[in-house]
Amino acid sequence: MGKVKYDFTARVWQHSAGWYFVSLPKKFSEEIRENFKSLEEGWGRLKAVAKLGSTEWKTAIWFDAKQGTYLLPIKSEIRKKEKIEAEEEIDLSVLI
After folding, report:
1. What is the pLDDT of residues 27-80, one digit of tens each?
2. For a FRET experiment, which of 32, 36, 69, 87 has its CA 20 to 30 Å from that of 43?
3. Quick check: helix, strand or coil at residue 1?
């Protein structure tokens, strides 16, 4: 299966440890899990490319069994560059 792009809007949330994430929509997470689970590494890690505004970066999404969705971490350098805050709704793309 070739590269698949997922465009969505999500709210940025902050984990108690200080990390920032967005949760992929459940519909996309179910499809990704069904089609790409065999490519996952430890702890449900799946390599991906994310795009937010004019910034694109190589990253990974992580499957969260409690939420039933993949989580995309948003690094501080990306948040600063794109002026993103916690609780903000953002439009982004993930390429698997």
Report:
1. 999 999 999 999 999 889 999 999 999 999 999 999 999 999 999 999 999 999
2. 87
3. coil
Architecture of domain 5-95: Beta Barrel (2.40)
Q: How far apart are CA 27 and CA 29, in angstroms?
A: 5
> How far, rounded to the nearest angstrom, does the alpha carbon of residue 49 sit from its chain's CA centroid?
9
pTM across the whole model: 0.92
CB neighbour list of residue 38: distance below 8 Å, 6 or more residues apart: none
- Cβ proximity of 78 and 52 under 8 Å: yes
Query: What DSSP string describes 25-93?
Result: PHHHHHHHHHHHGGG-BGGGEEEEEEEETTEEEEEEEEEETTTTEEEEE--HHHHHHHT--TT-EEEEE
Segments making up each domain of the chain, as ranges: 5-95
